[in-house]
Design brief:
- This protein is mainly alpha-helical.
- The chain contains 10 helices and no strands.
- It has one domain.
């Protein structure tokens, strides 16, 4: 017959083993199929498509502007072309988020959670606080890896819906401006100048190159604003979500790794250290 103490320890170890098994066989297979995770992945893919559309629109506008006579708008065309550096950086961040969504849950629930349960079982047997701290840290890391990006995509979808609409409007305006400029450059009514054709296409008065430059300067300004929005929603907000989650978990768990005392580092037992101190004190007395 097991004593009550040993029975309690056995129940705790079996519970941790059951949690590890459920994590490995059930959670790792079921969670990626939930709507919460699928919606997050679709949101990241939609953001990637938006970045690609804006990049293509800016390149198209740059080519259209560079085709104007006398190289008046070459600096504007170069400014639009240089924006692709930011698009590449944003796409890299989105690619990393997609990897975390696709593989983060599997890593968390097939590796990290079972390791945390194993460390917890060892703590129950050995009563070493270092193992308890390790188990908690692994559990927290698993939750962060699995859910920080999906949580961020849902928060971004709620908070930044208006900003996303602004980016889509900018893409449509940039694509439309480039298309109209290409159409005017092709020809059409031969009795009209290029600026008269552009005035008809843009439905506004464009009398000379300066009016056209003002239009595309406004396009560049909107593109820069859109890039700032994409960086905010796809790069900064995931970092902010991670740090907020990290702060919440730290406040909830108050995780700290205990350090061994000086006597333990030297291999001296506490009782022996006390005896040595008494002997030293006796030697100091006259």
């Amino acid at each position: 017959m097991l004593s009550a103490k040993h029975a309690t320890l056995a129940i705790k170890i079996l519970s941790l083993s059951l949690i590890a098994a459920l994590s490995f066989f059930v959670a790792s297979a079921k969670l990626p199929e939930t709507d919460f995770v699928k919606d997050s992945l679709e949101s990241v893919e939609a953001s990637g498509n938006t970045v690609m559309r804006l990049s293509a629109a800016t390149l198209s506008a740059s080519l259209a502007i560079s085709a104007l006579p006398d190289d008046f708008a070459t600096p504007l065309a170069d400014s639009l072309a240089d924006m692709n550096f930011y698009f590449v950086a944003i796409l890299v961040a989105l690619f990393l988020e997609k990897i975390l969504i696709r593989y983060g849950i599997n890593v968390a629930f097939t590796i990290l959670i079972p390791l945390a349960c194993f460390a917890g079982a060892l703590f129950i047997v050995t009563r070493r606080n270092l193992l308890k701290s390790l188990a908690i840290r692994l559990c927290v890391l698993a939750l962060a890896v699995a859910f920080v990006v999906p949580c961020n995509t849902h928060i971004t979808g709620i908070v930044a819906s208006d900003l996303t609409a602004y980016v889509n409007d900018t893409i449509e305006e940039t694509e439309g401006g480039a298309g109209k400029l290409h159409e005017a450059m092709k020809g059409g009514a031969e009795d009209k100048t290029m600026f008269e054709k552009l005035s008809d296409l843009f439905q506004t008065a464009i009398r000379d190159i300066s009016d056209l430059m003002l239009h595309f300067q406004n396009t560049i300004r909107k593109c820069m604003n859109s890039i700032a929005i994409l960086i905010l929603t796809n790069c900064l907000m995931p970092l902010l979500t991670f740090f907020v989650l990290k702060w919440i978990l730290r406040e909830l768990f108050q995780i700290a790794i205990p350090l061994p005392s000086a006597n333990e580092r030297c291999g001296v037992a506490p009782e022996s250290a006390s005896g040595l101190e008494l002997v030293s004190a006796g030697r100091k007395q006259p």
